[in-house]
Amino acid sequence: MRKKIEPRGVVFICLGNSCRSIMAEALARHLWGEEVAAASAGISPLGFIAPLTLKVLAEMGVSTLGLRSKGLEEIDFSACHLAVNLTDYSLKNLLPAPFSGRLLHRPAPDPYGGSLEDYRQTRDFLYRLLLQDLGE
């Protein structure tokens, strides 16, 4: 019998947790399944997911079940080995003390308020980021 490996935790962070970090969370779950416990949060969460975010994820057959916009205070950073900052802002003083993992700064284009094509470009950027930069 194979030993069950505990999933490694990763949190994706953006400004509003409505587009970029939500896409990254959903794509990570889609690509890595139970190997990675993916979460997302916003510095100033909007409290909703932009409809075009859901649309571009559905175009790829990516599940959006259970996704919701939330803030940093709702994340258990002690369970995360990696935090990925998708904004242009520094998170240096925003992450809680229990976080002892690695922080990566990988700014992604913010499609909020843009066209469907803007959302697709951000989704594709994040997909490549996950496969090429974060893939294991």
CATH 4th-level superfamily: Response regulator
Task: Quickly give the CATH architecture.
Answer: 3-Layer(aba) Sandwich
Choose one word for the global shape. Answer: globular
What is the name of the CATH class?
Alpha Beta
> Largest sheet, described in full?
4 strands, parallel
Cα Rg: 14 Å
Keywords:
4 strands, alpha/beta, Rossmann fold, four-stranded parallel sheet, 29% helix, disordered N terminus, 3 helices, 136 residues
What can you see in these coordinates?
This protein is 29% helix and 18% strand. With 136 residues, the protein is α/β, with parallel strands linked by helices. The chain has one domain: Response regulator (Rossmann fold, 3-Layer(aba) Sandwich). The chain has a four-stranded parallel sheet, covered by helices on one side. The model is unreliable at 1-6 (pLDDT under 50).
Layout of secondary structure:
Blueprint: E1 8-14, H1 20-32, E2 36-42, H2 51-59, E3 80-85, E4 102-105, H3 116-133
Parallel strand pairs: 1-2, 1-3, 3-4
Entry summary:
The chain is 29% helix and 18% strand. The protein is an alpha/beta fold and 136 residues long.
